[in-house]
Design goal:
477 residues, alpha+beta, 6-stranded mixed β-sheet, 19 strands
Length: 477
C-alpha cells in the first residue's frame, strides 16, 4: 500500500514537471527567437496579484468591520435583552458608519425583523416584500457572511455593495444579521484607477459569469455573451485561476483570471496584443495541446488510483471489520459534530458504555471463534434496537460505546435497560451448546461545558460500578 502510494506520487510529480517544462520551454524559445520584443511589450503582465492586494486594502475592509459588529458584545447583549432602547443601537450604527466612512451600517433582528439603521428603525422586514428577499436568502443560506449588490433598504433607488454577517448569541443561536455597505460608485472609481494605473481592462464577474463590476466603457451583462469570451467562459469559471487568450475584433487578447474567495467573484485582467503573428499562435496551440495531454494523463492516473484505494481506505479507517460498526478512531469526529448540533439546538447528549460480562471465560471455555460470534451477536442486537441517529462504536475487545444525540439521562437509562434485557434473553450457539450472555452498562449525560474526555471518564466509572456490583445491570453516572 505504501509503495503504491509513493509510486503514484512519483509518477504524478514526474508528469507534472515534464508538462510544465515542455510548455514553458516551448513558449520561451518561440518567443525569444521570433517575437521577444513584441511579446515583452504587449503580453499581459502579471498584475492580478498587485490588484488583488489593493482589493484587500480597499474592498475587504468592510468584511472586517462587519465581522467586528457581529462579534460585538454590545450588539448581542442588546438583542438578547429584548432590544430595549432602540436609540442605543441606532447611535452605535451611526458611530460605525462615521468611524469607518461606510455608506451605511445596519442590523436586522431575527426575532422582531426590525431593520435598524443610523437614522432609526427603517422598517419591519416581511417575506412578502421583494426588497427584503436578501435577508431571508442570507438567513437560510447558512453562510457566515456574504457580499451582494442590492438596493439600499434605506434608499431603494441607490445600489450598494452590502457585506452581510450572521450574528449569534452565546449559545450559538442565530439572532440576526449585521453589516455595512460600500458605494457602487466607489468601487467603479477603484476599477477606473486600476485601469489607468496598469493600462488594462479590469472586470469582476460572479461564479456564473455575470459581470458585477466593470469600467463605464464596458458593455455586456455576462462573459458568456461577450464576443470572444463566450468561447472560454466555461474554462474560466471552472478553475480558481488561469491564463487565456481569445480573439476580439481581429485582435488577440491575453487574459488573466483569478478567484477572489472573499467575494466569490473572479477578477479578470486583460490586454490586447498590438500584432498577431502566426508563430505565436502556433506555439500557443502547441502549448495548449501538451498541457491538455498532461492533464488527461494525470487525471486518468489519479482517477484510477483513487477509485481503487478510496473505498478500501475509508472502510479501514471508519469501520470495525468484525462487527461492521464504527471503530474507536471515528468517535471524536462524530462526537464533535453531535456536540455542535446539540448546543445549537439545546438538546442533551448521552453516552452508554457496554461491556460483555465474563468475556474472557467465554473465550477460554469455547474458543476465540465463539467469542467473536458473541461480539457479532451483541453488535447486531445494539444496531437493531437503536435509532438511525444513534452511533455505535467498537471501543475495545468486548466493549461498545453508544452515542445518543437528543437524549436525556433518564431516556438513555431506559434504552440501556432495554438493551440489557435483550442481550440477557439472547443465546449464542457454539457447537452443540448455547452460550448465555449478559452485559453491564454505564450511562452518562454530557454536562454543560463538559468535553468528551470528561464525560467518557464518568461513563467509564459508571460501567465499572456495574461490574463491581455484580454485572448484568445498568448504572448511571
Amino acid at each position: 500500500m505504501k509503495e503504491n502510494k509513493l509510486r503514484f506520487i512519483l509518477v504524478l510529480a514526474v508528469l507534472m514537471v515534464f508538462g510544465f517544462m515542455v510548455t514553458s520551454l516551448t513558449s520561451y524559445f518561440a518567443a525569444h527567437n521570433s517575437l521577444s520584443k513584441q511579446i515583452s511589450e504587449t503580453a499581459l503582465p502579471l498584475t492580478s496579484d498587485n490588484i488583488y492586494s489593493e482589493i484587500q486594502n480597499d474592498l475587504l475592509k468592510p468584511i472586517f468591520i462587519s465581522s467586528l459588529m457581529a462579534q460585538d458584545t454590545f450588539v448581542r447583549d442588546w438583542t438578547i435583552q429584548g432590544e430595549e432602547e432602540p436609540h442605543r443601537l441606532v447611535r452605535y450604527l451611526a458611530e460605525i458608519q462615521k468611524q469607518y466612512k461606510a455608506v451605511t451600517a445596519f442590523f436586522v433582528s431575527e426575532k422582531t425583523k426590525r431593520y435598524y439603521h443610523p437614522t432609526g428603525v427603517i422598517k419591519t422586514l416581511s417575506p412578502q416584500d421583494d426588497i427584503d428577499e436578501w435577508y431571508y436568502h442570507f438567513r437560510d443560506s447558512g453562510e457566515e457572511y456574504e457580499v451582494n449588490v442590492d438596493a439600499d433598504t434605506a434608499n431603494p433607488g441607490k445600489m450598494t455593495i452590502f457585506i452581510n454577517y450572521r450574528v449569534f448569541d452565546y449559545a450559538g443561536n442565530y439572532i440576526g444579521a449585521t453589516g455595512v455597505g460600500l458605494s457602487v460608485n466607489k468601487v467603479q472609481e477603484l476599477i477606473r484607477i486600476y485601469q489607468e494605473r496598469y493600462g488594462r481592462r479590469v472586470l469582476f464577474v460572479d461564479r456564473q459569469g455575470q459581470v458585477m463590476m466593470a469600467s463605464e466603457q464596458y458593455r455586456g451583462g455576462s462573459i458568456r455573451n461577450t464576443q470572444g469570451l463566450e468561447k472560454i467562459a466555461t474554462q474560466i469559471l471552472a478553475v480558481p485561476s488561469g491564463t487565456y487568450q481569445y480573439e476580439r475584433d481581429g485582435k488577440t487578447v491575453h487574459l488573466n483570471a483569478r478567484l477572489v474567495p472573499e467575494f466569490q467573484w473572479y477578477l479578470l485582467v486583460e490586454q490586447e496584443e498590438k500584432t498577431v503573428e502566426g508563430e505565436i499562435t502556433n506555439n500557443l496551440i502547441s502549448n495548449l495541446a501538451v498541457s491538455l495531454a498532461i492533464c488527461i494523463i494525470v487525471i486518468s492516473l489519479a482517477h484510477m488510483t483513487i477509485s481503487r484505494y478510496q473505498r478500501r481506505l475509508e472502510d479501514m479507517a471508519m469501520n470495525d471489520k468484525l462487527t461492521n460498526v464504527s471503530n474507536r478512531h471515528m468517535f471524536d469526529a462524530v462526537f464533535d459534530q453531535v456536540e455542535r448540533t446539540s448546543k445549537r439546538q439545546n438538546h442533551p447528549v448521552s453516552l452508554v458504555m457496554v461491556d460483555i460480562d465474563q468475556f474472557k471465560s467465554i473465550n477460554d471455555t469455547y474458543g476465540h471463534w465463539a467469542g467473536d460470534k458473541v461480539i457479532v451477536t451483541i453488535a447486531s442486537i445494539l444496531k437493531e434496537r437503536l435509532r438511525d441517529s444513534d452511533s455505535i462504536f467498537r471501543w475495545g475487545g468486548e466493549e461498545f460505546l453508544i452515542l445518543l444525540p437528543d437524549c436525556s439521562l433518564e431516556r438513555a437509562v431506559g434504552i440501556a435497560e432495554d438493551l440489557r434485557r435483550a442481550i440477557a434473553a439472547s443465546t449464542v450457539r457454539a457447537d452443540s451448546e448455547n452460550i448465555v450472555v449478559t452485559a453491564s452498562f454505564g450511562v452518562a449525560e454530557q454536562g454543560v461545558n463538559e468535553d468528551s474526555q470528561a464525560v467518557m471518564k464518568r461513563v467509564d466509572c459508571a460501567l465499572y460500578e456495574a461490574k463491581d456490583a455484580g454485572r448484568n445491570m445498568v448504572v448511571r453516572a
